Amino acid sequence: MKRLIVNTFIGRVAIYVRDAVGRTYSSFANPESAGTIANDYLAVFLTTSLCKNSAAFVDVGAHIGSIIAEVARRCPKARIIAIEAMPDKADRLRRSFPRVEVHGCALSDHTGEATFYVHTKLSGNSSLGRPSSRGGDVSEIKVQVRKLDDILTGGGIDLIKIDVEGAELGVLKGGERIIAENRPTVMFESGPLADDGLGFTKEGLWQWLVGRDYVVLLPNRVAHNGPGLSLEGFIESHLYPRRTTNYIAVASERRVELRDKAREVLRIDPTRR
């Protein structure tokens, strides 16, 4: 049902109500998680609001399209590129979002064919890696693997969202040229699991970004001043109760620009901060 209504007014209302109820319930049921829930909500809100109308938004791990639906609504002139490894979901995205450029493949730092592990109960947890904790709820399919640099041509890439269940660093490594040339803002997921089955580490993810002069921020710091997370702070933020699941990496030279845009979107008066 979610896939059928995601790009409709009813779908937007349903998702808003579902998320609002979920945030409220989770905060009461587990108060320690309130900060995580708020930051994850804020990450999505900022990600779907900050892209320039004249530029391109890239959704890596588009799933059923809830993120690109919001970007299309808030930034109607933006070029939207969706990348989804599961063939059935990529086909549905093409039908539901005819103006979106959809690529049916997985992304990493190499090209070829690979096994993709589909979580049969929670398809959003599917990945190139197979953590042992997923047990018997996984089926295997073969998918094409490409590099972001081979998919994206030209300039104007303003914002990239990456949610690929532990394969985020592989996506970044495969987009070295695009990121160097465009300096996009990157919203990426980094969950608490240490076993992603791919050999990527959280230390490596932070080091890759900072080594390219990016600042790694908690979502609630984007609209404010600050140096960003140190490596120790980034690792610590994954510990229970973690600060967030989603982080926002901003090119250092764009830090003030993104701060001011976030203040505008969130209606923050800088004279009161």
Mean pLDDT: 88
Structural class: alpha/beta
Report the biggest beta sheet as strand number plus sense, adding barrel if it closes: 7 strands, mixed
Oligomer: single chain
Rough outline: globular
Strand content: 15-25%
**End-to-end span in angstroms?**
43 Å
What's the tally of helices?
A: 11
Number of E-state strands = 10
The radius of gyration over CA amounts to: 18 Å
Reading side by side through the largest sheet, how are the strands ordered? 3-2-1-7-8-10-9
The CATH architecture: 3-Layer(aba) Sandwich
Give the CATH topology.
Answer: Rossmann fold
The domain count comes to: 1
Please give the share of residues in helix: 25-40%
What's the CATH H-level homologous superfamily?
Vaccinia Virus protein VP39
Keywords:
7-stranded mixed sheet; alpha/beta; 11 helices; Rossmann fold; 3-stranded mixed sheet
Question: What is the fold's blueprint, element by element?
Answer:
Elements: H1 2-5, H2 9-29, H3 34-47, E1 56-60, H4 66-74, E2 79-83, H5 87-96, E3 101-103, E4 106-107, E5 112-119, E6 138-146, H6 148-151, E7 157-162, H7 168-173, H8 176-182, E8 185-189, H9 202-211, E9 214-217, H10 231-236, E10 246-251, H11 255-266
Parallel strand pairs: 1-2, 1-7, 2-3, 4-6, 7-8
Antiparallel strand pairs: 5-6, 8-10, 9-10
